[in-house]
Design brief:
Blueprint lengths: L5 H15 L15 E6 L9 E6 L4 E3 L2 H6 L7 E7 L2 E6 L4 E6 L5 E5 L5 E6 L4 E6 L4 E6 L4 E7 L8 E4 L2 E5 L12 E6 L5 E6 L4 E6 L5 E5 L10 E6 L4 E7 L8 E5 L5 E6 L1 E6 L18 E6 L6 E5 L6 E7 L5 E9 L1 E7 L1
Antiparallel strand pairs: 1-2, 1-27, 2-3, 4-5, 5-6, 6-7, 8-9, 9-10, 10-11, 12-13, 13-14, 14-15, 16-17, 17-18, 18-19, 20-21, 21-22, 23-24, 24-25, 25-26
């Protein structure tokens, strides 16, 4: 049979093709419904392969490369830290010299703090201001949170800076790295939160690497003793009112390297890494002798404690080349879950 009307034949074919073509909906960007945790994957130095992993424990749902999935641009070179403030997330990308600001629910880009040398962490002071610590510069950068511009600096007596903790009207800043400085890296500086003025300093063991605040508003500082094992590692409890050391717990082995101090939401239990995972109470008068969880063949790299429930997240960096893994432990130390993250999973940012 031949069709005598070519126009009719064209329309019949068009209708047939249209009816047989399955419509594909455009991919939807991920959303980040609370509660959950962002894992900051450092990536390899100078390769620009840092990334952000999102994990929603109630759904056991993982979103890899979450920053790129939403914004279609890579995160950058060596992501080091993330914190949340109200509806915003602040991601510090160390070797790129920037801090990205995102919407916590959508992951969408809101702004960027640039003009930084080697940023390590960011402390949000209030709706208007933040401070950024630096691995190389001997000062903090003061940031306007409305314009995301650096508006000033706070000199740190010739020292670089790492972690920052606020207790009342004081900010405690540890001097972790000995790079690019003359003084020994064994100091916690005390600053007035309103003025940025240095009001005191506390001498601790070398290389203070992490700090937390307990339920009694006491500051805990974990020191490795130095990458070259120059001193014995130690854990300090400090009274923030008098800036005095109330407790010093010294590790018996000079060649160990304790790091990544964490605390639960109730503020009464501490965890840290020292090849294995260790747990202790804030009232303990000595360090734990036996691990809470042994590492086995894992290369434990970073630890975080979910504040709204006592679950501990620990990253395994494997060989620092492949994607790492995250292990989740209950309050009793039982393994309750695991999932893959990015390359060298480091800092944990819990949102709930």
């Amino acid at each position: 049979m031949k069709y005598k009307n070519p126009i009719l034949l064209f329309w019949m074919l068009a209708i047939l093709l249209t009816s047989c073509t399955k419509e594909t909906a455009p991919p939807t960007a991920p959303t980040f419904q609370k509660p959950g945790v962002f894992i900051v994957n450092e990536g390899n130095f100078t390769t620009g392969n840092a990334s952000l992993t999102w994990y929603q424990p109630e759904k056991d749902s993982v979103t890899q490369d979450a920053f790129y999935a939403v914004n279609k641009v890579p995160l950058g070179d060596v992501a080091n830290y993330m914190t949340s403030y109200k509806d915003k997330g602040f991601i510090v990308v160390n070797n790129s010299g920037i801090v990205y600001v995102i919407n916590l629910e959508t992951g969408a880009f809101l702004g960027k703090i640039s003009g930084l040398t080697s940023p390590r962490e960011i402390l949000i002071l209030d709706d208007n201001h933040a401070w950024v610590s630096d691995l190389y510069n001997k000062h903090l950068s003061v940031v306007d949170l409305h314009t995301y511009e650096v508006t000033g600096i706070i000199a740190l007596q010739g020292r670089t800076s790492e972690s920052m903790v606020r207790i009342g009207e004081k900010v405690f800043i540890n001097n972790w790295s000995k790079l690019n400085q003359i003084p020994t890296n064994n100091m916690v500086l005390v600053l007035d939160a309103a003025t940025g003025t240095i009001t005191d300093s506390i001498t601790v063991s070398r290389e203070p690497n992490s700090m937390v605040v307990d339920a009694n508003h006491k500051l805990w500082v974990l020191c490795s003793g130095g990458y070259d094992n120059a001193e014995y590692p130690a854990l300090y409890q400090i009274n923030p009112n008098s800036d005095s050391i109330e407790k010093k717990l010294t590790f018996p082995n000079k060649n160990t390297n304790p790091f990544s101090l964490g605390i639960n939401g109730a503020g009464n239990k501490l965890w840290f890494l020292n090849e294995d995972i260790y747990k202790m109470d804030i009232t303990d008068s000595q360090l734990p002798d036996t691990p809470w969880v042994t590492s086995g063949s894992n290369n434990f790299y970073s630890l975080g404690v979910r504040p709204d429930q006592e679950s501990v997240y620990v990253s395994d960096a494997l060989d620092y080349v492949r994607n790492g893994n995250i292990y989740v432990y209950s309050a009793s130390g039982a393994l309750t879950g695991s999932f893959e993250a990015g390359i060298i999973p480091g800092n944990f940012c819990f949102v709930y």
